[in-house]
Amino acid sequence: MSTVPSPRPSWLHRLRWRLSEDRHLLFTQPQFRLAALDYDDYWDARGGASDSRTLSIWQAQRVRWLVPHLAPGDVVLDLGCGGSGTLNALREQVPITGIGADVSEAALERLRIDRYQALKIDLKDPAAISSIPEVDYVLAFELLEHLPEPEIVLASLVPRVRKGIWVSFPNTGYWAYRIRLLLGRTPMQWIRHPGEHLRFWTLRDLRWWASVLDRDLGLSLQHLRIYRGPSPLNQLWPGLFGMAFMFLLAKRDRPI
Fold first, then answer.
1. What is d(CA 22, CA 24) in angstroms, rounded to the nearest whole number?
2. What percent of the chain has pLDDT over 90?
3. Where are the beta strands (DSSP E) in 151-243?
4. Which positions ≥6 away from 44 have C-beta within 8 Å?
5. Could you report the per-residue pLDDT of 28-44, keeping only the tens digit for each?
6. Residue 63: left if φ>0, alpha if ψ -120 to 50, beta else—which one?
7. The pTM is what?
8. Contact between residue 90 and residue 98 where contact means Cβ atoms under 8 Å apart
9. 88 near 54, Cβ under 8 Å?
10. Which of 22, 52, 194, 233 could staple 85 via S-S, CB 3.0–4.6 A?
11. How many C-beta atoms surround the C-beta of residue 200 within 10 A?
C-alpha cells in the first residue's frame, strides 16, 4: 500500500496558487443551505475520504515534521482523521500501530479497508473518549477549531496519552483574515457551513492558551511550526503571514 503526496509544484505554480488562495480568502462568500451538516458530505467537499492514499502538500509536510519524533512501536491515534492517509504515510516510514477515530462512516470504512482499528467517536460527547485505548500520541490535525470546548476534549485525552498530542489549526491573525475584517467580513474559514469553525487562535492567543494548558493539564507547548502563507514572510512574521500552526502538547514529564 502506498500513500502518494501531491507532486511538489514549481515556484511559479506555487505563486499562482498562493495568489489564488489569498484572493479566495479575501473576497469569496460561499453559498450554503439551511440544513443540518452531513459529515460525509463535508468530507466529500474537502476531497473525500475515499481516496486516502493521496496527501495534500500540507498534509505531507505535517507527516515529514512528525516522523522524526516517532519511535518504532509507537501507538498513534488519528482523531477526526477523515480517512487513513496520514496513518498510511507515517506507517510507511516508521513501524507504528495506527488507530483512526471519526464520526464519518465513509472515513471509518476507509480505515477498515486499510486495516486499521476504526473507532466511531463523536467528540461532542467527550465521555466517549474514555473508550479509546491508551496510546503514545494523539493527532488532532485541523480538529480543535471545530469544537466548542476543545479544552474538555484535551483534558479527557490526557489520561489516555503516554507522550503527547500533536495539534494543527489555522491562524486567525493571518493577514488576509485581518483585511477581510476591515472590509466588513468575518474570516473565511469554512467550506460547507459558516458554523464549521467554533474556536479561533492567533499566534499570541496560542501562546497564552498553551500556558493555561500547561498550568491546568500538564501539557507543554513544544516544536511549534508555522506553515502555509507566503514564504519567507511566514517565518519572519509568523503571526501575520503564517496561515497555520502545528505543535506538540507534550505531557510535562515526557519532553519529546
1. 5
2. 59
3. 161-170, 219-227
4. 106
5. 777 777 766 666 666 66
6. alpha
7. 0.87
8. yes
9. no
10. 52
11. 16
Strand partners, 98: 76
Rounded distance between C-alpha atoms, residue 64 and residue 83, angstroms: 18
Cell of 5: 503526496
At residue 67, the 3 state secondary structure works out as: helix
CATH topology of domain 4-251: Rossmann fold (3.40.50)
The 10 Å Cβ neighbour count of residue 135 is: 21
**Residue 199 · residue 150 · CB < 8 Å:** yes
Answer whether the bond into residue 232 is a cis peptide, omega within 30°: yes
Residues making up the chain, counted from first to last = 256
Between strands 244-251 and 219-227, the pairing is antiparallel
Compare 231 and 192 and report the one with higher pLDDT: 231
pLDDT band at residue 15 using 50, 70 and 90 as cut-offs? low
Amino acid at 135: V
- If you write DSSP's letter for every residue of 188-214 in order, what string do you get? ---SS-TTS----B-HHHHHHHHHHHH
- pLDDT value of residue 231: 85
Range 178-191 average pLDDT: 87
Task: Give the span between the Cα atoms of 221 and 242, in whole angstroms.
Answer: 18
